[in-house]
Design brief:
The chain is of the alpha/beta class and 424 residues long. The strands form 6 sheets. Strands 1, 2, 3, 4, 5, 6 and 18 form a 7-stranded mixed beta sheet that branches. Strands 10-9-8-14 form a 4-stranded parallel beta sheet, covered by helices on one side. It is globular and about 65 Å long. The chain is built from 11 helices and 20 strands. 28% of the residues lie in helices and 22% in strands. Helix 4 crosses helix 5 and helix 9 packs parallel to helix 11. It has 2 domains: 186 residues, FAD/NAD(P)-binding domain (3-Layer(bba) Sandwich); 115 residues, FAD/NAD(P)-binding domain. The structure holds flavin-adenine dinucleotide. The site of flavin-adenine dinucleotide has 38 residues, from helix 2, strand 2, helix 3, helix 4 and helix 10.
Length: 424
C-alpha cells in the first residue's frame, strides 16, 4: 500500500447490498487519495454536514480545496443520526397511527405486526439512496480533492494525512461530536449501544433500556416502544427533555406514560449487572437501590465535541470541554483556522452545522460572519415534536392540541413488569 492509498475502508453492519452501496459512495474501498500539488486555499477536516458544505461552497468560489474524512462522508447526519433515526421514527409513527386508528373511527384488525427486519432494511435502503449526495465521487466532480484517513495538524498551516502533508492558507475544523459515555461500574462489561451502533440492529430488542432523557434518548425510546420493545428510561435528569420547555416536557411525560414507557427520572446510576437474565441497571433516586432490567442498553447521555488526538496543539488551536474556542467569526485561536458544526457549537443540529459552514465558505476573502445567535431546533417525539425556537408559542400549542386530541393508545404487547423499575 502506498502513502496515497487510504487504509481500512470500514464495513457498515449488516454487510448487505444497501450498506455496501452506502460505503461505495461515502468511503469507496478502492479510493486512491490524490497527491497534493502545492498549497491549498482551504483544507477541511471532517466530511460531515459542516465539512461538506464548507468544501463545496469554497470549491464553487474557485478555491483549491482538500477535504479529509477518516470514516464515512456524510458524518453523523447521514450515517448514524438524522437520516436513520428519522427513517425509523416515521415507521414508528405509522405503527402508532394504526394502533390508534379505531379512536379515529377507522377499523383495523387488531394491533399492527411490525416486521423490524423490514423496518431496518427500509432505513438502510433510504440511507443508501441519499448517499450519492455526500459521495466522494460527487465531491471530486465539484473540484474537491477528497482524502480518506486520519487528519492530524503537524503545524500551524499543515495537516498530515497518511504521511502526505497538506499545506493550507485556511483550514476549517469540522470534526463533529460523538456520544458521551458514563463511568459507571459494570457498564462497559455489560455492553451498550450508542447512536453509532443501534442502527445496525436487525432484531428488535425485547426489552430496551435507554440511559438519558434528552432528545436522542426520547426519540429512540418512543420509536422502539412503538415498534414493539418494552422500554425503560433511566436518567439523572429530573424530567424528560431537561433543556426544553417544561410545559412541552410535561405533555411528553404524560404521553410516554400512556405508551407504557417506564420513566426512572432523577436516578443516579450505581452500577450495571449482566447475567443470564439480561442486563440490569441499578440506580438510586434517594430511596435505596432500584433496578431496571433489559436486553439491550442504549446510552444517550449527550454529545462530546471531537477535539482530541489530531494535533490541535501543534496548530495553536485552543479547545475547552465544550469544544473549540472560536470568536464571532468562527475563527479559532489560530487565525488561519476556522471551525464549524458540532465541534464548536452548543447547537448540535445539522442545519446549524450547515449555516455555520456557509458563513465560513469564503476562505480567502475574509468575509465577516458570526455564529448563529438564534437557532431553530428540532425534536421528533410525539406529541410534542418541534421545529422552532425554545418557548415558541407554536411548539407548545401544537403539542397541547395533539395531546388533547390523540385517541387511546393500545400497546403492541402488554407491558411487562420485568422491564420496569421495581423496588428491591
Ligand atoms: C441519533 C441522532 C439524531 C439526530 N437527529 C437530528 C435531527 O433530526 N435534526 C438535526 O438537525 N440534527 C440531528 N442530529 C445532529 C446532527 O447529526 C449533527 O448536528 C450534525 O451531524 C453535525 O455535523 P458536523 O459536520 O458538525 O459533524 P459530524 O456529522 O459528526 O461530522 C464530523 C466528521 O468528521 C470526521 N472526523 C473527525 N475527526 C477527524 C479527523 N481527525 N480526521 C478526519 N476526519 C475526522 C468524522 O469521522 C465525521 O465524519 C442528530 C444526531 C444524532 C446522533
Amino acid at each position: 500500500m502506498t502513502a496515497s492509498e487510504p487504509k481500512g475502508a470500514p464495513t457498515v453492519l449488516p454487510d448487505d447490498s444497501y450498506n455496501r452501496a452506502l460505503v461505495e459512495n461515502v468511503r469507496p474501498p478502492t479510493w486512491t487519495n490524490p497527491t497534493p500539488a502545492g498549497r491549498y486555499n482551504l483544507v477541511v477536516v471532517g466530511a460531515g454536514t459542516a465539512g461538506l458544505v464548507a468544501a463545496a461552497g469554497a470549491a464553487g468560489l474557485g478555491a483549491r480545496v482538500a477535504l479529509v474524512e477518516r470514516r464515512l462522508m456524510g458524518g453523523d447526519c447521514l450515517n448514524f443520526g438524522c437520516v436513520p433515526s428519522k427513517a425509523i421514527l416515521r415507521v414508528a409513527h405509522v405503527a402508532a397511527l394504526v394502533r390508534e386508528a379505531p379512536g379515529y373511527g377507522v377499523a383495523v384488525d387488531g394491533p399492527p405486526r411490525v416486521d423490524f427486519g423490514a423496518v431496518m432494511a427500509r432505513m438502510r435502503r433510504l440511507r443508501a439512496a441519499l448517499s450519492p449526495t455526500d459521495s466522494a465521487s460527487r465531491f471530486r466532480s465539484l473540484g474537491v480533492d477528497v482524502y480518506f484517513g486520519d487528519a492530524r495538524f503537524v503545524g500551524p498551516d499543515t495537516v498530515d494525512v497518511g504521511g502526505q502533508q497538506l499545506r493550507f492558507s485556511r483550514a476549517v475544523v469540522a470534526t463533529g461530536s460523538r456520544a458521551a459515555t458514563l463511568p459507571v461500574a459494570g457498564l462497559a462489561e455489560a455492553g451498550f449501544l450508542t447512536n453509532e451502533t443501534i442502527f445496525s440492529l436487525t432484531d428488535l430488542p425485547r426489552r430496551l433500556l435507554v440511559v438519558g432523557a434528552g432528545p436522542i434518548g426520547c426519540e429512540l425510546a418512543q420509536a422502539f416502544r412503538r415498534l414493539g420493545s418494552e422500554v425503560a428510561i433511566v436518567s439523572l435528569d429530573p424530567r424528560l427533555l431537561p433543556r426544553e420547555d417544561p410545559d412541552a416536557a410535561a405533555i411528553l411525560t404524560a404521553r410516554f406514560e400512556r405508551e407504557q414507557i417506564a420513566l426512572n427520572l432523577g436516578a443516579r446510576l450505581v452500577r450495571v449487572e449482566a447475567g443470564p437474565e439480561g442486563k440490569v441497571i441499578v440506580f438510586d433516586r434517594g430511596r435505596g437501590e432500584e433496578r431496571a432490567g433489559g436486553d439491550v442498553i442504549l446510552l444517550a447521555v449527550g454529545r462530546v465535541p471531537d477535539v482530541e488526538g489530531f494535533g490541535l496543539e501543534a496548530a495553536g488551536v485552543r479547545h475547552e470541554r465544550t469544544g473549540l474556542v472560536v470568536d464571532d467569526r468562527l475563527r479559532t485561536t489560530n487565525p488561519r483556522i476556522y471551525a464549524a458544526g458540532d465541534v464548536c457549537s452548543g447547537y448540535k443540529f445539522t442545519h446549524a452545522a450547515d449555516a455555520m459552514a456557509r458563513r465560513r465558505r469564503r476562505p480567502a476573502s475574509g468575509a465577516t460572519t458570526s455564529p448563529p445567535s438564534r437557532c431553530p431546533s428540532r425534536r421528533s417525539t410525539a406529541p410534542c415534536s418541534r421545529v422552532g425556537r425554545r418557548g415558541s408559542r407554536a411548539s407548545i400549542s401544537s403539542a397541547a392540541a395533539d395531546a388533547s386530541l390523540a385517541p387511546r393508545w393500545s400497546p403492541a404487547t402488554p407491558a411487562r413488569r420485568s422491564a420496569r423499575s421495581s423496588s428491591p
